[in-house]
Design a protein that fits this description.
Blueprint (H helix, E strand, L loop, with lengths): L2 H9 L3 H14 L4 H10 L4 H9 L36 H31 L13 H16 L11 H11 L3 E6 L6 H9 L2 H9 L3 E6 L3 H10 L6 E8 L2 E9 L4 H93 L13 E7 L5 E7 L4 H9 L8 E5 L4 E2 L22 E8 L3
Parallel strand pairs: 1-2, 5-9
Antiparallel strand pairs: 1-3, 3-4, 5-6, 7-8, 7-9
Amino acid sequence: MDQSDSEGEMDELTPHQMDLLVQLQDLTGLEDLGVCRALLESQGWDLETVAREQLGMLPPHVEQDNDHVDPVPAPAPPPQVVHPVWALPRTSMGWLMYIISLPTRLITGGLGAMWAFVTSLVGLPPPRQSTQSGDPRGDVAAFCAEWEHQYGTVHPVFNRGSYSQVLEEAKRELKFLMVYLHCDEHQDTNRFCTEVLSNPLVVDQVAANNIIFWGCKVSRPEGYRVSQALRENTYPFLAMIVLRQNRMVVVGRREGMVQADTLVQWVQDTVTDFEAFIVAARAERDERNLDREIRSEQEAAFAETLRRDQEREQRAREQEEVDRKEEEERERLRREELDRKDMIVKMKIDLAAEIPEEPEVGMEDTVRVLIKLPGGQRLERRFLLSHSLKHIYYFVFCHPDSPDQFDIVTNYPRRTLACKPSQAQPNTPSLKEAGFGKSEMLFVADLDS
């Protein structure tokens, strides 16, 4: 780094920071101001910490957060809190450094006052000191109120959000952003505000191009951070910012006093030259929105198709369940029918053994019984009057052509014979008790038909 660059960097320091550099040189014997500045910046301009570290009084303790630097113009981090020049020390080391640095403080204080006087004469921006602020919107609102109180209400419409908010708004709405940095101490500030910013031509030009206008004092923390990001050289200062390749970039700068008509032409030329960025960004955003809509429609159509498929599968599963239950019911009935038939076959085998032997022809008390089945078959057999009606029932039941459930009835007079044993009547009447004669005609009534 050459000597001119080094002097330029030192000019950016405040008098207090220069004082800290001189004190660090005296305490440590370092001659390179760049090294001293780097050491102080690494510890947030804490002289005592750097001195202890260089003198070996305490182990080094470095805890530095490397803030990410956004290439988009953004407010710089707030400066470190500057302690008063004549703050009284509170430790023995502090008193020692205080006594050693007292002559230097007196010299640098006088030089700082002389430098401020010279810069005010030649129009250079004064060194800016700022403290941390937790309310950037409050800084902007206070500047707008002060500006209107001093210069009136005729001006481009001030956006009252913070710098980061107005950047995001310009990016979101695809508009140009004009940034104005205000310095009360500069000799051209009052003239610029009254003759240029309050000029109706300028106000109309900003409104006609739909430009977002934002401003703040550089003496306020929010304005100071924006100044650190934009790196202006003099005042009045205007910057035109626009979205380019998805980044907010500065596309135009105006520094120093300018006439209203010249500023109007500069605004128009800047908008004309760089409006293509807005057009390209809007076309890209429209394309993204179209793609998003197409994807949304495709996703909606896919979701609808999926829903219909799921409903169809659900109906198919429900129908399969119904068919399965019906099949199970049919299978159960079939098994029950088979079991019933097997039981009937078994019963026929068992009951056939209970049928008494047929009496000989001509035996006394013999009854000739003629039975007609539902299918037209005729059965004939002889029984004794002492035989029970259940023997006639068993005889018919054991016949292959007999129905499974039936009653035996007489034709005239028509009556149903109580020939089937039951739990209520296990013993049925004999043929004699039922009034049978020498020959009887009986009919089988199928109860399942």
